[in-house]
Design a protein that fits this description.
By secondary structure, the protein is α/β, with parallel strands linked by helices. The chain has 10 helices and 7 strands. It has one domain: Divalent-metal-dependent TIM barrel enzymes (TIM Barrel). The strands form 2 sheets. A 5-stranded parallel beta sheet has the order 1-2-3-4-7. The longest helix is centred in the N-terminal third of the chain and has 22 residues. The chain is globular, with a radius of gyration of 22 Å.
């Protein structure tokens, strides 16, 4: 069962308290807020339903420091990840003990938002086996990360998949940071499936090769097309991209068998 919002509340910088007020009961602050958020990560419910992946947002304390100016003092980011790991570690242990994993969606606004920061999180949680990834290529395209190479690097950790499209069209006016513009005027925009730039044929191939066996979940956040049309077009789009992995090689019909001596004959070494 998804726990995105409470995951964000579990680890939150005070600067974002007011913005996330609607994600938690009023009046909760400090330790009380953290304990409430931890109790709302429904690992038990997911385990009882036979669901392995519990998708969450990581939250964090250092997002406002993403651009290193002024220069970040030594140990600052390490301290943020120590605290992030301290808060998530009991939930990771509990998920492991119930046969579940936490699928962290590597998302802007969270300290864990790309491959480098995911590796930092793994370092601080002792490479915890329950620390996995809810893969969403749209977030990677918007930050201009190679979302296909990401699967090749971290495929064994991917436990969930949001099928969400996006486009990045920089101009002389706006780039990655977006210029505080509304979504429809940003260089990076989330789009309905098939309307963006994400190479889903490659993604479905790479996930199949990585033996991903979870759900391909349609997520709609388009700033142009209606959700109704996005759903009508998105479901068939996903169905058309699903791959039934082969159990044979195309040239098995020409298999001739052989042994060590026959191999030496073919190499001209007998």
């Amino acid at each position: 069962m998804a726990a995105y919002l409470v995951g964000q509340v579990l680890a939150i910088h005070p600067a974002y308290e007011a913005g996330f007020a609607g994600f938690r009961p009023s009046g909760l602050r400090g330790t009380a807020r953290t304990e409430w958020a931890a109790s709302e990560v429904r690992i038990e419910a997911s385990a009882n339903l036979g669901l392995r992946n519990v998708p969450v947002l990581p939250g964090g304390f250092a997002w406002h420091l993403i651009y290193p100016w002024p220069q970040r003092p030594p140990g600052l980011i390490d301290e943020a990840f120590k605290e992030l790991a301290r808060r998530w570690r009991p939930l990771l242990d509990y998920a492991r003990d119930r046969g579940c994993v936490l699928g962290f969606e590597l998302h802007p606004g969270s300290d864990v938002h790309d491959g480098a920061t995911f590796e930092m999180f793994l370092d601080h949680t002792d490479d915890h086996p329950a620390a996995c990834i809810n893969y969403d290529p749209s977030h990677f395209l918007l930050q201009q990360l190679d979302y296909c190479a990401f699967i090749e690097l971290y495929g064994e950790r991917i436990s969930g998949f949001h099928v969400k499209d996006a486009e990045f069209r920089p101009s002389g006016r706006v780039g990655v940071y977006g210029g505080y513009q509304p979504w429809n005027k940003r260089a990076g925009r989330v789009r309905s499936l098939g309307d963006g730039q994400v190479d889903f044929k490659r993604i479905f191939t790479l996930l199949t090769e990585a033996r991903f066996d979870g759900w391909a979940v349609l997520e709609w956040e388009c700033c142009v097309k209606s959700p109704e049309q996005g759903a009508r077009e998105g479901a068939p789009f996903i169905r058309q991209h699903l791959i039934e992995s082969t159990t044979v090689a195309f040239d098995d019909f020409a298999k001739s068998g052989g042994d060590a001596e026959a191999n030496r004959v073919m190499l001209g070494l007998a």
